Fold each of these.
Amino acid sequence: MDFAKRSDFSKDAEIVAINVPSILMKTFIKSKINEISEDDPILAMALKKIKKIKLMTVSGAAQSSLYEKFNTYLAKNDFEELMSLYNEGTRISINTQMKGDRVKKVMLGILDDEDQVFVDIKSDLDINALNLLIEEYEARKVEHQAIIEQ
């Protein structure tokens, strides 16, 4: 991750970093996308548009300033906070970087007492198409709820 340097971590910190290029992702999930597309078109569309995923987990570095550096990185690179959640001591931040009406990057930061997880997703999602699919998904959800209540 661009905001993390080795010097930011204590010596006892455990770090796992994974970089998954799109060619590898598409190889593993291509058949699943076809299965998913009927049941969940939003997820299938989103998976098709993902170009690259980076994941970093840090354990045992609770006193580091990494989360603050993450927030500084987001501000410098014009990310907008889409959502921030707090649950039982865990903070989750979901941020997007837009270019016109396209979502180019999604960055997630997850922080609790012991661990920090950062996910960097490069994509090319059209926000208008995404909104239409979300509306369709919500309509199906309401329909499904009405069937259950009968």
Amino acid sequence: MADNRPHKTPDLHTTAGSSVPQEAQGAHGGEVYRLARRLGVSPDAILDFSSNANSLCDDLTRAILEAIPYSYRHYPDTWCSALRDRLAKHEQVSPASVLVGNGSSENIFLTVQQLRPRTAVLLAPIFSEYVRACEAFGVEYTLIPCREEHGFACTPRELALLAEHPADMAIICSPNNPACVTYENMADILGAVRARTVVVDNTYAEFLWGLPEYAANRHAAYSPLLPPHTELVTVQSFTKFFYCTGVRLGYSVSSESLTRRLEEGKTPWTVSAFAEQAGLAFMDEQKTLPAYRARLKDMRRERAAFAAALTATGMFMEDRIFQGVNFITARLRHPGQTAEVYAGLLEHAILVRVCDNIPGMPPGFLRMQVREQAAWQQLTSVLASLRQA
């Protein structure tokens, strides 16, 4: 059924509204400050599984940030020139192809604002800020939802729909949040889209380090797969991998000419000098980056154990417990109980992400980040008690 928002959706399935009111959960995960005020507790008293940040590296991040002096006497460098140079080396592009922003969200909105597509096609499920950006700038958009019964993979059916919906801009997230899939057929996907500009969100790509998918999910790998005269923008964030949600730091990579167009719309000084120094420390490829990457094997073992424990609670459909790069998205056996389960967990100061209001996501899914064993055992214990109640 049509509504007054500038979008349309192929009739694959209807995405229900969230069973948890927006004012209760918020638009995103990690809204601990607002919920702490509501519960009358300290933010640190909330066991947060909702943000997808790499909390198993908390000690590394704390040590890095505590060692950075806060520069308050000078304006920040609007273009973050030192960090841009380092990121360019990491991405194997020229510095003029990199734009550093206040989290990936700034660059998402800048991309839509400056390119002003009339139409966009979004492979879903997808991060809700892409939809918000389209709506904010009056872009007519089409969601093409991948199906849960296929593990949210992009099957020939979705490829055909991409080809059938030409647009000014195509938007893809890989690895996907919250669907947990890293698209194995990016060559087919990029070959199917009919768009002048393709945006690929690589926010979670660093979690693929050590796996074959890592090399395949980078700006340099996508470029040769696109048709001639198609612009590519990849979006990255420091938030998730480096566990620095409060620092607000991200970047995008595109051609030099397209990056200049984005720069023309950028507000000055959106990235603090402290954030740039943090980014430089994180991107130390001799010491810091290897230290974070070394934790990935343990995280993957923790993820498998966490998934098994979630299965054992009996709360979730066993064939709908999907393991993402550093989080798990699982469908409740009774999707209509989503609000009840969310509230029951919150009574124990445990916060999860209900996915009902994520564009293209079927109802009844909870997303939970991988945390240390003691934390997820607390979560699974409460889930088991809720099932027995």
Amino acid sequence: MTGPFSARIRDGKKIVEYLGNRQYKKIHNVSARAFSKKILKERLDDLVTNKHYYHLHKIDNSIFLAATEYFHKLGAEWCNLPLTTLMISSPGEVYAGKKLDYTTDTLPIEISWFNNHKRIFLTESSQFYLELRLLTKDVNKVFSIYNSFRKEKADFSHLAEFQHIEFEGKMDFNNNVKTAISFLKYITKYLIRNNSDDLFYYLTKKEIKLLAKTFDNENIIELPLKEALKILYSETKNTAYKKFSLKNFGSWEEIKLTEILKGHVIITDFPVDEIPFYHNTSKRDQDGDLVAQNADVILSGYREVIGSGVRISDSVVLAEKARAFNLPLKDYEPYLKTRRFKHYQKTAGFGFGWQRYVQWLLRLPYIWDATHIPRGQYLPKP
């Protein structure tokens, strides 16, 4: 099954074209429409009058049921976790060897906390706290379902607040990736069995039938980022892709790559200094570049829906990496301390973007229609 988007070049400009579904017509350039106050103002009436939100409600409910059922069968246990923290999960990515400032170049949402002089953050991810839970004796796999927050303006495929299903377990890289794909397959088949009428509101019967096999092995291609960039250069002749960096690997590139390779794509081996500090260094690649032991799952005709990786287990290496990323070590001390416990075991995990999956599944043009009450850069309404 193809996704909702196609990456095109028109008049020398990269555009993302929306391909339509049973409810929405094609859109020439989906990025041309911005998230707005008008969308928020009209949402309450839309919730009452638009059948879309009934079917979305049913889909959301089944995703929750399928996710908890999947993790229960896997032996993973749910965790009650905080949404406030001093430790954000994706600080200080570095481009061209430049240290980024912890407070101005990262995108957490800050809040005041009583009379404390220091401001705190809303969580970007529950990963740190899932890792902490795995220090408990005989707890080997855990998961959480919470809201996450990113201080980025909403666009066609991003919300400032979104639902995040996250997993962490005492397992290696390959088993973690297999678990992530198995999770996608499980919830998709659950929806086909239990929500066929809701799916049919958006998709044709042929598209629903194709969903049943969409996450079979033959529809998934795995390759390192460096190879992905080479493919994009070969296709476009854009010299920006000759540089081994995520700087020029955005929504257009993710969509285009799935179109070229004709399937879902798992991208591995990101440059270690451009992704969160806790990722384990896998190796030096054939060119001598240090790469991380991580993988992003990009769905066909869409974007990254799952980010995954193995965590650094060595306490000294983790502390050195934190310093290199310009982090306040005092704030991260609880996380750094986890590696110093004798019974600590290396873990891996993944995060699943709920609304992104729904947007892909239902072939929706805008992610703010993949949730009942979206949050972006404007004051909450309703």
Amino acid sequence: MPDLSERQAKLLQVIIDEYVATAEPVGSETIVKKFDLGVSPATIRNDMVRLAEEGYLEKSYSSSGRVPTPLGFRFYIKTLMAEKKLPVASEVALRQRLYEKRFKEEDFLRDAVSALATETNKMAMGSIENGPFYYAGIANILDAPEFFDIDLTKTVLGLLDQQEYLWNMLSKVVSDEPVTVLIGDESGMQMMRPCSIVFSKYQLGNREGYVGILGPARMKYPQVVPTVRYIRNLIEELLGNW
């Protein structure tokens, strides 16, 4: 990735946070009005041009504002993001909900996926080697403006009928991180450019599984990433001990 100055990185963070919150392209006028970055409007405009030239932002088709590219989101996740710890009340509620099902693997994994969909307000999915495929929260993605595009929605929902493709795609991902984020066409599908998949692999004995969410690339990664990690940890802890 090209090097960014501290000022440009801060500007990129502000733009991404604003875009995630509003789903609207972000213009320099919005930045000047809503945020005090300690620099002139001209500097902000020039830095936004630089961010676009380096591939972190792109022009929106619908307005003069800019939106983050997959590269912009990747830089945000890798360099700028500060994870937000899952609230203790949520941790306790999730643990209690799943603890009761720890003796029945299928029921446990099905409810883990359902709980993840509810907690993140995204479409969640999961599977385990030689086991069923689970998904929940389809209606959640329909609330996002990105999925007003019927072709994108058909592509995403079509993945639910391509469980072997999903399994192979996620199984091939090599990462040192406990939670992996596939942004845009990193999934191998150009049509998925407006989307992200956030998932974690887990191990039960000699079987590998995964659990994760699919939603717009414009998502709250600081909350989503630790939630996916926590569900994965509960799966290994509660199912792995029986």
